[in-house]
Each structure stands twice: as structure tokens, then as C-alpha cells.
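Weekend entry, working from home. Most of the wet-lab plans are on hold until the incubator is repaired, so I used the time to fold the two sequences that have been sitting in the queue since the last round of cloning. Logging both here for the record. First:
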Amino acid sequence: MDTPLVIVGAGGFGREVHDVVEAINANSATTGQPLIEMLGFVDDGEPDEELIDDRGVPLLGSVDKLAALPSEVQYVIGIGNGSVRRRIAEWANGLERTAASLVHPTAILGRHGISVGVGSVICANVAVTTNVRIGQHVHLNLAATVGHDAVLGDFVTVYPNVSVSGAVVLEDEVTLGTGSVVIEQRRVGARTTVGAGAAVVRDLPTDVTAVGVPARPI
């Protein structure tokens, strides 16, 4: 049976999430994953409707339209900001909505000890090795890598080409900018942002922005 799905957020990453949906459907005969029935996007902003129309998927309206859809309709949040994802997920949980988790067929997930929380999106060419715990509504963007025994909290955002080494802990709502690196056994505190290209070589506290090599709070 097909899984009916709505993507919350129709901006750039929302469209990339739709790419993941299309890849899952294109490879369903090989992977055995059920087909996803893409119902449309919801968005409170002003997304580029021409870009949405090119995908043959409707823009259904504002996010609150999700509340009026049948109970079997699942959702996934295609918004990069972790704190915004948290607010939407808490609202959707109040509606008793089910969050879908999406894994692109080209992503490589180890066979042992991998857990992926509800609502998470794992994009093309991501590699997750072994004994990794991924929380709820986590985004692992293009070609990110996550090493052994890493723990990613809820609403973590990992941008393209990030390297997370073994036994790293990323607390809730951490954001790792494009091309950043976290060396082994480091901890990054909740809601901290690591800038693009930065190298985390020591633990970082909560609620800071860290940039540079080595990464330092600013």
C-alpha cells in the first residue's frame, strides 16, 4: 500500500526532500520500500510556485492545511532550521500525525547498530558506518559521513560534505555547516552552529556559533 506524504516546506531543501522521495519510488522494486504517494507541499512562506509546478506536485497552502488532511497522511519537514522543525513537529504531534523517515537509495547505512529516528531525512551519498544513533527529525545532507558510535540528537542539521568522526556527540538542534569536520570523541552542545569549513577539535558549549580552524566560539 502506498504511503501518502506531505512535505512541510517548499523551499530549496523541501524540493531536495522531494528528490529523495522520487529516488525512493524509482528504486522501490529493487529496495522493497513501499511507494510514496506525494500529495503536495505545505508552506507558510512564499515559495517559488513555478519551481514547485515543474515537479508536478501541488502547493496545498499553509502548514495548517496538514490538520485537515486524512489521519493516514504522513509528513516530513523539509526546513533546514532545527528549532523551526521542532516547533512544527511538536504541533504535528499534537495532531497525532505520523512523521515519515526518508533514506535515499544511494545512502550507505551500516548493518549493525544503526537507529534512525522518526522524521529524519538522509540524502544521496550519505555514509553512516556502525553503531550510530540518529535522533528524530535529523537532516543528513548530500555526501555527509558519520563515523562509528556517534550520537546525533533530535533536530540536528548536517549540511553537505560534513565529516562527523567516531564517538562524536551532537546534542539537540546542532547545525554543522557545509564542509565542516568534527574530530573523534568531541561533543557539540545543544543549539550550537558550526560554520562552513570549520574544524571542531575540542568540545563546544551550548548556544554558540563556532568558526575557523580550529573552531572557536564567536
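Second, folded right after the first finished:
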Amino acid sequence: MRHRAAVLSAVTLLSMAGAARADAPAPTGMTCSDAYTSAQTLRNARKLVEARAALRVCAQSTCKDFIVKDCVEWLDQVEDSLPSVVPMATDPQGNELLDVKVSMDGSVLTEKIDGRSIEIDPGPHTFVFATADGKTVEKQVIVAEGEHGKRIAVVLGTPPPSPPGSPTPVGPPAPGAAPQSAGPSAATTPAGQPTAPVTESGESSSSGNALRVVGVTAASVGLAGLAAGSIFGVLASSDKSSAHCTASSVCPTPGAVQTLRDAGSMASASTIFFIAGGLLTAGGLTMWLAAPSGRIEARPAIGPTGAGAVVTGAW
């Protein structure tokens, strides 16, 4: 940060220079008051270039003491916050251009690029670089407070044509253009190794897997139903034989009557299991056959604790 003593010295010199010039009298009275008020408004609006000019007026010793004190302090802060830019321009070959006029937000910033920094207000700005032969480039830049010597660089002109036989640069595809492709089976990796063909959609594969899973599950449940029906059929036949009843259901004892009834219930259950198991098995096999599948094997299993099905394979 610049020292206040340096600012006071600059203000003193400015006052002396103003007193020496007949056309720039030292400010007094209303001029000091107007500059004091205007400087605060411009400073709050971040119009720092204009605020600095006003502060340089009210900081002179001919103004009242309290005005000078405030203006000197604010002038120090504004000069620290005031950013600056350095316009730069080159041709496509990288040669620096000097005879270029630079405008900022519609006003001429400099008639010629000379490498010097130019103080501007902070914020977004639109710079236009123009050459004598009509080449122009526009560039939008945000300049932050306290950012000194920010380079604003552009390239003016068009690149020279490529020599015959040189490879044509490949740019991004035009909007809406379909990417070129040699087909799914011709895709290769960067190392030149062929890749697996790319399917257009994984929907059929996932649908086939789901259909096979449902088919195998239904068939497995159906086989279990057939196995249960077989068990109930065997038990029904065994109970009916042990009841020793006649063909017209005449039984020798009341216990034999109950055994015959139990045999009938198990026979009915056997029939139900057989019908349901047959339908599920047929439906499951139909779904399995309708979808691509690997080798799947399902077989009934009957053990001492119950009946079921064992399914092996992959899907």
C-alpha cells in the first residue's frame, strides 16, 4: 500500500502546480464541497477513475481541514483499488502488433499499443482491437479491483493456408452431424486391437435373461408340485389299501372308515398338485425355450423331510 506521506507530497506538488497555472486556480469553497460529495458517490459506485479525479481536487490544502483529511485517506484507498490493463495484439504467426487502436465499452482507450498499463474501473468490459486495414477482434473481460497490469491479448488476422499435401486438421463435428463409424464389428482400440462388436441395445439381452429366470422359476415350482402330487398319490394308495374296505366303500371298522376318508383327501390333494405342477412346468418350459439360454437342468428331489426341485445351470 502506498504510504500516506507519499500521497501528501503528491497533493502538495499538485497544489503548487495548480497555483502556478493561471488557468487552474486552487479550489475553494463550493468547489471543494462539490468534489468532496461527488467523490463519495463515485467511490461507492465503483467508478474509481472519476472518484480519484474528484479526490485529487478536494485533497488540496485550500479546502477545509476535515475535507482534506478525508479526501487524502480515500485517495490512498482508491489508488490501491484502481486496476489497470495492458492491451496486447499479435498476428497469427505470433508477431506483436503496435499500430492497433483499442476501445473499451465504446470509447477509445488508446490509439496505439505501446506496452503501457492503462488504469480503468473494475468490472466487466468489452474491448475492441482494430487495425488500419479493418481487422477487428472483440473480447469481453472482467477486471477485478486491485488487479494491476492485467494482460488483454488478442490475435488479429487469419492463419495462412496450409501447404499442399499437409494433413487437414479435423475439427469437432457440426451440430446434428452423426459420428462416422465403420460398423460395430470394425471398432478398434487406440492400440489397433479389435474390440468386441457393440450391440445396438442391451434391452433384448436383459429381456431374455428375465424371461429365462421367470421360466426356470415357474418350471421349478411346477416340478415341485408334480413331486408333491406323486407323494400324496402314493400315501393315498397306501391308506386305501390298509383300510381293507370293499369297492363299494364298506369298511370293517370305524377306524378303517376314517383311514379311507384320509386316503380320499390325499388323493384330491394329489390331483390338485398334479394339475398345478403340470401347468407351471409347461409354462416355464415354454418361456425358457422362447428366450436364448445356456444349459439349464431342473429335476425333482424327494427326501425324508419333503419334496422339491434341484435346478442347475446358467442363465
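Plan for Monday: verify the second prediction. The first helix runs from residue 4 to 20.
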